[in-house]
Amino acid sequence: MDLGNLGIQPNSDPNGSKDHVSHMALDIGGTLIKLVYFSRNCECSVEDKEDKPSNDSLLVSNDHKKFQLLKGSFHFAKFETSKINDCLEFIQCNQLHFSGCKHHGDPTNDKCIIKATGGGAHKYGDLFKEKLGICLDKEDEMDCLVAGANFLLKAVHEEAFTYINGQKEFLQIDHDDLYPYLLVNIGSGVSMIKVDGDSKFERVSGTNVGGGTFWGLGRLLTKCKTFDELLELSHQGNNRVIDMLVGDIYGGMDYAKIGLSSMTIASSFGKAISDNKELEDYKPEDISRSLLRMISNNIGQISYLNALRFGLKRIFFGGFFIRGHAYTMDTISVAVNFWSKGEAKALFLRHEGFLGALGAFVSYEKHGFDDLMVRQLVHQSPVSAQDGGYKIHGSQNGELKDNESIECSVYVS
Ligand SMILES: Nc1ncnc2c1ncn2[C@@H]1O[C@H](COP(=O)(O)OP(=O)(O)O)[C@@H](O)[C@H]1O
Ligand SMILES: CC(C)(COP(=O)(O)O)[C@@H](O)C(=O)NCCC(=O)O
């Protein structure tokens, strides 16, 4: 595995010390394992501060300890859950398993505790113990999704954006006017969560037609070997070859009386009924496009209906299904806009797939692991700014490419 991709060298300290990586957290989902960790740049970047740094504190502490400003980077990585051994090997090669914390009040137990969420935190606990000697400290998946989303929305400059007619527009988040919102996490399946505040939320709905459905059906129907291949195919496809449009039913005309244009999809995959064709007669790119459109549209519509139930105007979409993919985001945006008659907005997150893992990461503090407490991500002013500013590596257009990192500073006590 090419660790250079991650912008770090394992154990790059000339003395061989392992203290560069100070935190790691995992989200082990139905399809993908997401891993985040914080690494310090070097010892000399530690500064003492007398008090909490600013009014914009993300994680406010009531005590008045001395804080240290650590400069470093958040790193993001993902693995297929079905190839969990790659993840274990990665952790081992980078010695990330030494980055957890020890059991509180039990000096005899020297096993490292690593925060982990997602179903796999339950399913693979024994494997992690056996292979790496670490205990996965399980955090609830919904708690983590919400904590991760709130963390990103408050801490990361230009995290959320709209995607309309191919244009990305970043949202300025007013911390006092963030709630309530609907969080829709499109992973293997889909969870819809009404968020009313920090740790204040209710999972209001979900659907089993999600990212796993797109990838599973797509793999069967197109013989694609990877998710990215399937997504790539959709670029070149034409869904009208397979989808039955209103115009196909109404002789090329709109059904204007009920507001349907002739180009509206009346029935996804509906043309396959009458075409008298076999699967092989359809182009994989057309199948991929129809499938992506069907699933994205359906999720957009169900999301809107749930937003309507609770009078929510903002819908944030996360989960790795989205992948920053233009056609997916466009379809979801159009669905939300169409059904809400422009009242509700679909918003996307740059770190869409890492909500759960980041939520598990910030939960170290919640449980009072003093030595690992992240007090605050420094208020980030313009991207290339002074100490404490955020800097997103790599992408000019705000997309998080695989295995990138965010440079940042954190306060620890
Ligand atoms: N490299 C990939 N391999 C498999 N699925 C991917 C990949 N990238 C994106 N996806 C999509 O993301 C979904 C998983 O999203 P994720 O948020 O990680 O959910 P989960 O927690 O269920 O694993 C998949 O079902 C698929 O639609
Ligand atoms: C069970 C899950 C929370 C697991 O999360 P995931 O691994 O898909 O990210 C999710 O797949 C889900 O919400 N499914 C939809 C179930 C339903 O409400 O019908």
TrEMBL record:
Alphabetized UniProt keyword annotations: Kinase, Transferase
MF term (GO), any: kinase activity
Entries under CDD domains matching the protein: ASKHA_NBD_PanK-II_Pank4
Top-rank taxon: Eukaryota
InterPro entries given in the database record: ATPase_NBD, Type_II_PanK
Pfam families: Fumble (PF03630)
Stretch list, region Disordered: 1-20
Database matches in PANTHER family: PANTOTHENATE KINASE, PANTOTHENATE KINASE 1
Designated name of the protein: Pantothenate kinase 1 isoform X1
Source species: Ziziphus jujuba
Gene giving rise to this polypeptide: LOC125420001
